[in-house]
Amino acid sequence: MPLQHSAPVARVEIDLGAIVANWRILCQHHPSGPVASVVKADAYGLGAAQVAPALREAGCGHFFVGLLDEALVLRDRVPGAMLAVLGGPQPGSEPDYVGDDITPVLNSLAEIDAWTATARRAGRMLPAILHIDTGMSRLGLEPRELATLQRDHTRLAGIELRYIMTHLVAADCPDQPLNEAQRRRFSAACAGLPAAPTSFANSSGIFLGAPWGSDLARPGAALYGINPTPGRPNPMHLPVRLTARVLSVRELQPGETVGYNATWRATRPSRIATVGIGYADGWLRALSGRGRAFFDGTPVPLVGRVSMDLTTFDVTGHPAVHPGCWLELLGPAQTPDDVAVAAGTIGYEVLTALGRRFPRTYCPA
Ligand SMILES: *Cc1c(COP(=O)(O)O)cnc(C)c1O
To answer: How far is Cα 44 from Cα 66, in angstroms, rounded to an integer?
Structure first.
């Protein structure tokens, strides 16, 4: 049910132009082939219905989602583009793939067999992406299945192999030997399979360098401003801003406490600002006593527990903070990666957790 927003207490602004600019930066860093857009989980929380068409307009021709349902919603919004489902076709869902020109990622011999049967019934070749597991141990052909397929290519009869892909385990750690190990395993896997284009790097993989280049990169996070090169300057633009209105300002005497379980106690006369956003909006409860917001570019510390829809900040020394003014929670001064450090998680989780109950405005590309 869409909510009415007569006087919002928090808002999200999403700059589609920054996402498109990020895609172009990634294209420059991946000269070996085009760059797809991973828009699973509602484009990492930023809104696939808006993000995917903007990227399609900019020239992106390949999109990945996690679930068939996500693809069905997006099909008409990315006309002419390849739209692939990472999760693998569930038994019985094959007609939906065929009917809407959605490309399955085949993760096992069973999925391959089901897809070749579908092609036989359709009486024509059907496109698919073949996923090889080179170390993630989640989805993709495991070594024994890969060996079976390498011995018997007829198992792929009726399948037009659009790409052979694998997924990096630790691309965000350039010194991790697994990157090179996966590169070698992937080359060996492809060498024993019918010739097909390859798809390898995720966001961080693109920055590992040319040996991890392929015929199709698959970045997600970097499109949305998450730093693909942790520990080094972020080459991406930040497309998201989250602000919350101050609902009240309290004057506290020393000894008075703030929030559930009284985890914060004033040690001096203090001013406490309460904003209308909480863990139900993805402002993680793990930020209790650790996070911060920004007022006019200066940080104000989060004090006490984060509640379901309220969070408190110590604005002592900021007399300009009053009910009705806005604090910035995500933006250039505090990126999703920064919030993730405070919350003990990763920027991916901060973005995908972002709530849907306050209004979003999209700045067109
Ligand atoms: C999510 C995902 C990606 C994108 O990864 P990022 O780290 O967000 O760039 C690429 N490939 C697969 C298989 C994925 O599951």
So the answer is: 11
